[in-house]
Specification:
EC number: 2.7.13.3
Number of helices: 11
Largest sheet: 5 strands, mixed
Oligomer: single chain
Catalytic activity: ATP + protein L-histidine = ADP + protein N-phospho-L-histidine
Enzyme class: transferase
Protein name: histidine kinase
Keywords: ATP-binding, Coiled coil, Kinase, Membrane, Nucleotide-binding, Phosphoprotein, Transferase, Transmembrane, Transmembrane helix, Two-component regulatory system
Strand order of the largest sheet: 1-2-3-5-4
Shape: rod-shaped
Order of helices and strands: HHHHHHHHHEHEEHEE
Length: 403
């Protein structure tokens, strides 16, 4: 199916342009039948009036010819939806010798103006005017002067054509408004789908940032218990306590994320406070309790003065940096640095030296840094990460801090 055929099928019956080969012609609706019948009766009425006038001043054979021609012209109007242009041309030529076809000619002109483009309408209208002029001289009306007949024919043709073009323009406007409404609805659905996708990405990023830190603690201490079964009872008890606390915190964080996904009227948790810059020392202390050597160096005297969104981003960056250091450089000291002031921005860095042994490579490595880059960009900042000059790894980010 070609593009033109698809457009014709999508157009309603009153805007379809028939006449194309192989094009599916829509069936007449009840409204179409009413319009066609009304035009047929109107054309027949005009033809009867013209035939009655012609019978008074012409011979019987001419009167019979007029009546037959007028009847055929009115019956031909039922073909106006299928062949509007051909019908209008034929009735224009018939109008030259049979004035009784004038009503059918006007109806066909109206159909052409409604259903065809302006270029075709213009030359068909010119043909109808020309044949009307010829008809005035070939079959003059004894009751009307030639000048009045010429003016009347010209005005009627123009009025009917203008009326048809007005109807066409109105229908095209209505159809354009409907198409715009359908397009707006489709765009709204696309925006909703995009919003859902962005929400899912944000939730996935948040789950990674929150749970990766807890699960890394579980993995490290579970591995220590596996490879050091002969460790002193105190170390085993401490590792088991860290595993228990980390599992509990992971469950709490998971409940918090699930609470965000719940409907507003559902009851449950999900209203835990979000981390900020003020909770960064607690994160560092948690890593220390898990056995990591972490140094926090900050020059921000009032963490509560930092915007909540910026502080939360700093917290997530530090959390991801500590998690990566624990996974890829276990046993190395980690330094978390926070610098900044209002108006100049906030800088956070996480650095760890190179590990003593080979650097382990874990499946899925790098996904957290990709999420951090997106999170930092959304916050209006920038993130840099890579090998440090001393052979270790450095993570550094800058975030805006309005004055």
């Amino acid at each position: 199916m070609t593009r033109t055929d698809r457009q014709r099928r999508l157009l309603p019956s009153h805007l379809a342009e028939p006449g194309g080969s192989g094009a599916a012609r829509p069936r007449r609706t009840v409204r179409d039948w009413i319009v066609d019948t009304s035009l047929f009766l109107l054309a027949a009425l005009v033809g009867l009036v013209a035939a009655d006038t012609s019978a008074q001043y012409t011979s019987e054979p001419v009167t019979l010819f007029d009546q037959l021609t007028g009847g055929l012209a009115c019956c031909a109007l039922w073909l106006r939806r299928r062949w509007p242009v051909g019908l209008a041309i034929g009735l224009s030529l018939a109008n030259v010798v049979a004035p009784v076809a004038a009503g059918a000619l006007l109806a066909s002109l109206f159909s052409v103006a409604v259903r065809r483009p302006f270029r075709e309408v213009a030359w068909i209208c010119a043909l109808a005017v020309a044949t009307s002029v010829v008809q005035v001289f070939l079959r003059p009306d004894p009751t009307t002067s030639r000048t009045l007949s010429l003016v009347l024919g010209f005005v009627l043709v123009l009025l009917v054509t203008a009326w048809g073009m007005l109807v066409r323009s109105r229908r095209q406007l209505v159809e354009a408004l409907r198409e715009r409404a359908r397009r707006a609805e489709a765009e709204a659905e696309l925006r909703a789908a995009q919003a859902q996708r962005l929400a899912r990405e944000a939730i996935a990023r948040e789950m990674h940032d929150v749970l990766a830190h807890r699960l890394t603690l579980l993995s490290v201490h579970a591995g220590a218990l596996e490879f050091r079964p002969d460790a002193p009872p105190e170390q085993i008890a401490r590792a088991a306590g860290v595993i228990r606390d980390s599992a509990h915190e992971a469950l709490q964080d998971l409940r918090e994320i699930i609470g965000v996904l719940r409907a507003p009227d559902e009851e449950g948790e999900g209203n835990r406070p979000q981390p900020t810059l003020a909770t960064l020392p607690a994160l560092v202390e948690e890593s220390r309790q898990a056995g990591a050597e972490v140094v926090l160096d900050t020059t921000v005297d009032d963490p509560d003065a930092v915007p909540a969104a910026t502080g939360r981003t700093v917290y997530r960056i530090a959390q991801e940096g500590l998690t990566n250091a624990r996974k890829h450089a276990p046993g190395t000291p980690v330094t978390v640095t926070v610098r900044g002031r209002p108006g100049e921005g906030l800088t956070v860095g996480v650095h760890n030296p190179a590990p003593a042994g080979p650097v382990p490579h874990l499946p899925g490595s790098g996904q957290g840094l990709i999420g951090l880059t997106e999170r930092t960009a959304l916050a209006g900042g920038r993130l840099e990460h890579g090998p440090a000059p001393d052979g270790g790894f450095a993570l550094r980010a800058w975030l805006p801090w309005p004055p």
